[in-house]
Amino acid sequence: MIDHISVGVSELERSARFYEATLATLGLSRLVTRPATIGFGKTYPEFWINLRAGMAPVAPESGTHICLRAKSTADVDAFHAAALNAGGRSDGAPGIRPHDRVKYYAAFVIDPDGNRIEAVTFPSE
Hints:
The structure is a single chain. This protein has about 120 residues and is of the alpha/beta class. The protein has helices at about 10-25, 75-85; strands spanning about 5-10, 30-35, 35-40, 45-50, 65-70, 90-95, 105-110, 115-120. The protein has one domain: 2,3-Dihydroxybiphenyl 1,2-Dioxygenase, domain 1 (Roll). A four-stranded mixed sheet has the order 1-4-3-2, with helices on one face. Helix 1 (about 10-25) runs antiparallel to helix 2.
């Protein structure tokens, strides 16, 4: 249903480095580079970062949360580690999240501007 998403960033190159490292763990790479926007994806840009010069950090209570599908728990682990190594912060370490309908494995990170990003997979066992 969703074709693509985008997040605002205050420093394009800093965020490009963060997202290149973090999204690579999920199979996404930089596909488009323009003066004020960069698109990441597998075959077409699915995830965009857009320069918003002077943007204040995203407020923790904003409610904004983007979740990306991972192929495996190892990919979720790699996503979390890459995000932390690239300047992000943990918002929930990798692990099983029991839910009333389904069990899932996820990790949550916060990018350098405060955007909340999750990677999730659904283990079969």
